[in-house]
Amino acid sequence: MSQLSKDFLWGGAIAANQAEGAYLEDGKGLSLMDIVTAGKKGVSRRFTNKIEKDTYYPNHEAIDFYHHYKEDLALCEEMGFRCFRTSIAWTRIFPLGDEDTPNEAGLKFYDDLFDEMIKRGMQPVVTISHYEMPLNLVQKYGGWANRQLIDFYLHFCEVIFKRYKGKVKYWMTFNEINSVILMPEIAGVVGRDQDDFLLRSYQAAHHQFVASAKAVTLGHQIDKDNQIGCMVLTLVNYPLTSRPEDVELAEYNMRMKTFAFSDIQVKGHYPRYVQKYVERLGLHIQIEPGDLEAMKEGCVDFVGFSYYSSSVATIQKDIEKTGGNLTSGVKNPYLETSEWGWQVDAKGLRYIMNRFYDRYEIPLFIVENGLGYNDQVNANGYVEDDYRIAYLKAHIEEMKKAILIDGVEVIGYTAWGCIDLVSAGTGEMSKRYGFIYVDRDDLGNGTLKRSKKKSFDWYKNVIASDGENL
Question: Which residues contact 316 (CB under 8 A, 6 or more apart)?
């Protein structure tokens, strides 16, 4: 194999709501994630509708990236990062979400943050909406099920596109947009026990598709150099057996839970299989005049995606299940399983890269990949995370095969949670992904001191060698 391009964007990824903390500082408003409690393995987090007394909310301080970002980016520069992915907290810019005038203190924070990245040789890679939105938009309007959210979102986009023109080139409109159906609460769609919950969830998805497409068009108008992508959660599913029904079910799961969302944003229309599926559900989604035209005009420039694990599908009943990223599946007997029940499957990354590229023939961007593990600090205050090195090594090897053997075009690779942060799924700190250890526990105790894990120097060598030294 030949080598990866010197322009390949090696880096790491975090999200504002899981890292920044400072949840009411400098004019920031309450976000949806600010009212979500901590959970733990096997126990879901809880939305409380308001801040309750004597309740721990891990996102309120998180790892205090808001005040530590210079220190953190210095460590990332030491690793050789060429890009750094984060998100912009909507509530720092518009505390309530429906204001006309943005919060200058919030805008300045991201100016300073992006300037620091650029100074240290990193391209900012920015997710516009990453699992958080102003709480006011949930409580007053009902979240993304309300069409007014499109205009509020586009106002937010216009402000940040103009403010950070020339600083940010790579954008993604919604993080793991398929989660609007898999976990509608993160889009502000609440009330699972209500009869119209399913309809409101799919209506929210339509509004996000329209908003995303209009944001792509707007971003290109403001800066022709902008590269604006979608971001999908990949749910790789294999058939458990060669039984035709298992094969059919696995393909159906991938189509409806992953490809439907990328198809719509890359191709700019609802495929017939999506239309038929919604018809079978008996749902009438309100599509306003101009929506379909906007979706056709605002096709994305690249496909960003997360990949952590895979599962299998079968029509067989009473079979062992396994966990995953916002979903679960059937356990694959040929794969190892992480502490959190996720199947470790490096070859699945090459598989999904080829599926995406064969389908679209536009660049891909691997913006999340990593291993959550309950790291233990040894007697020397050091984390010897050989298990993380092994996981990432195997995945990077498969990524290289997809690029150098199969011809898949890839912009870059950002390891998820390059600095330990709050888990989106459980709210735990013990589910660690980083190359950098943060002294913080699941109850909010700790000094927040940063320290390098063994994987820090390993990843530094990977980047320095453009993936040759694994």
Answer: 240, 246
Mean pLDDT of the chain: 95
Q: What is the number of H-type helices and E-type strands within the chain?
A: 15, 16
pTM beyond 0.85: the answer is yes
Q: How confident is the model at residue 324, as a pLDDT?
A: 64
Q: Angle CA(128)–CA(129)–CA(131) in degrees, nearest 5?
A: 150
* Region for 176 from its dihedrals, namely left if φ exceeds 0, alpha if ψ lies in -120 to 50, beta otherwise: left
Q: State whether residue 155 is helix, strand or coil.
A: helix
Q: Based on the residue annotation, tell me whether 185 is a catalytic residue of this protein.
A: no
Domain positions in the chain are: 9-464
Span 215-240, average pLDDT? 97
What is the average per-residue pLDDT within 227-251? 96
340-362 CB burial, b ≥16 within 10 A, e <16: bebbbbbebbbbbbbbbbeebee
Which residues make Cβ contacts (< 8 Å) with residue 179, sequence separation at least 6?
Answer: 131, 186, 187, 233, 326
Strands 450-452 and 436-438 come out as antiparallel
Q: Which of 20, 132, 368, 398 is catalytic?
A: 368
Structure tokens at 275: 């239309």
Res 49: pLDDT: 87
Classify domain 9-464 at the CATH topology level.
TIM Barrel (3.20.20)
pLDDT at position 42, please? Answer: 65
